[in-house]
Design a protein that fits this description.
Elements lengths: L11 H15 L6 H12 L5 H16 L8 H15 L17 H7 L4 H14 L4 E6 L2 E6 L20 E2 L4 E6 L5 E3 L1 H12 L10 E2 L1 H17 L5 H13 L6 H12 L3 H15 L4 H16 L3
Antiparallel strand pairs: 1-2, 1-6, 2-4, 3-4, 4-5
């Protein structure tokens, strides 16, 4: 099966402006999840201009305006969101969506109403937040979902989830509900959540897995997905490169991203630039592991030899 070509990137000037805004938003006191995800989309898709960015925000506002006014309990919120987004508008995911870059781009998910679990969760989060719901993201291993209820009740004091079979996870004083936007907003029982985790990791569900995901953690995971998509497609190294570049703009990021960026540059035939970045990374890693540093320097020398 042939998959459609991914979107074409913006001009270098537009890209530079988008990255400046992305870094500024990521370092703000309260980073806005929708804005950051839309800027990722604009870096991927040169057709997403300012009007398109505004239109996506307006669409999220419009959807939020169609929710009932403060329906009540977390479960009532979950049902209202499922009825609106999952059933009325048909937001959901399918296995084939993992093969498309568009499934990681918020503006395309809003247009197609299809996407990866984490991007569909962003739609749920942003629509619910605008409507005043007690909502937060939950980064289960391998499958992002959405929590409704008091975030403070998501810790160990809430009690074990094992064996829970109802559509809510009751804490000491506040009902909590998990929903799966990839499955159209299905309300998850504790057992459902355990099955999702077991399918991804082979291990059991731990309470720590239910802690709220911060906006920057969500964006980092979105970029991880894009990097993974590109890594499976060597001809899309340019996509991998801009995803690494955006990840490096986040206030907290792994030093190894520098190594990944250097190797992408070499892969793209930018041998001198890639070798320089490999050498710089070797200096950093040498402080903790000389053997790894020497291996990276060897890679740098090999890259420089490609220039001859």
């Amino acid at each position: 099966m042939r998959h459609p070509h991914p979107p074409q990137p913006p001009s270098p000037e537009r890209s530079a402006e988008l990255r400046r805004r992305f870094a500024e938003e990521a370092r703000s006191e309260r980073p806005d999840l929708a804005t950051l995800c839309l800027l990722v989309g604009a870096e991927a898709d040169g057709t997403l201009d300012e009007a398109g960015l505004d239109a996506a925000q307006v669409e999220l506002d419009r959807l939020a305006g169609q929710l009932p006014f403060r329906p009540g309990t977390p479960r009532a919120w979950a049902v209202a969101l499922r009825d609106l987004l999952g059933e009325r508008y048909g937001f959901h995911g399918a296995t084939a969506d993992y093969q498309r870059l568009e499934s990681s781009l918020l503006h395309e998910v809003l247009r197609r109403r299809r996407g990866l679990p984490i991007l569909l969760s962003v739609v749920w989060l942003e629509v619910a937040r605008r409507a005043g719901a007690p909502v937060y993201g939950v980064a289960l291993p391998g499958h992002f979902v959405v929590g409704l209820g008091s975030e403070s009740e998501s810790g160990p004091e809430s009690g074990s989830l094992a064996g829970a079979s109802s559509g809510s996870l009751s804490g000491a004083s506040q009902e909590r509900v998990l929903v799966d936007p990839f499955d159209g907003g299905r309300v998850l029982s504790g057992q459902d959540a355990e099955v999702l985790v077991a399918g991804a990791t082979g291990a059991g569900l731990r309470e720590s897995m239910l802690e709220p995901a911060a906006p920057l953690d969500v964006v980092s995971r979105v970029l991880n997905n894009i990097r993974a998509w590109a890594a499976r497609r060597p001809e899309q190294s340019a996509v991998g490169l801009w995803a690494v570049d955006l990840a490096l703009l986040l206030p907290a990021h792994a030093a190894r991203l520098r190594y990944e960026r250097a190797r992408l540059l070499v892969q793209r035939g930018e041998f001198a630039a890639g070798a320089g970045e490999l050498e710089a990374y070797a200096e950093v890693v040498g402080a903790v592991d000389q053997a790894v540093a020497e291996e990276v320097r060897r890679e740098a020398r090999t890259a420089r030899a490609m220039l001859n």
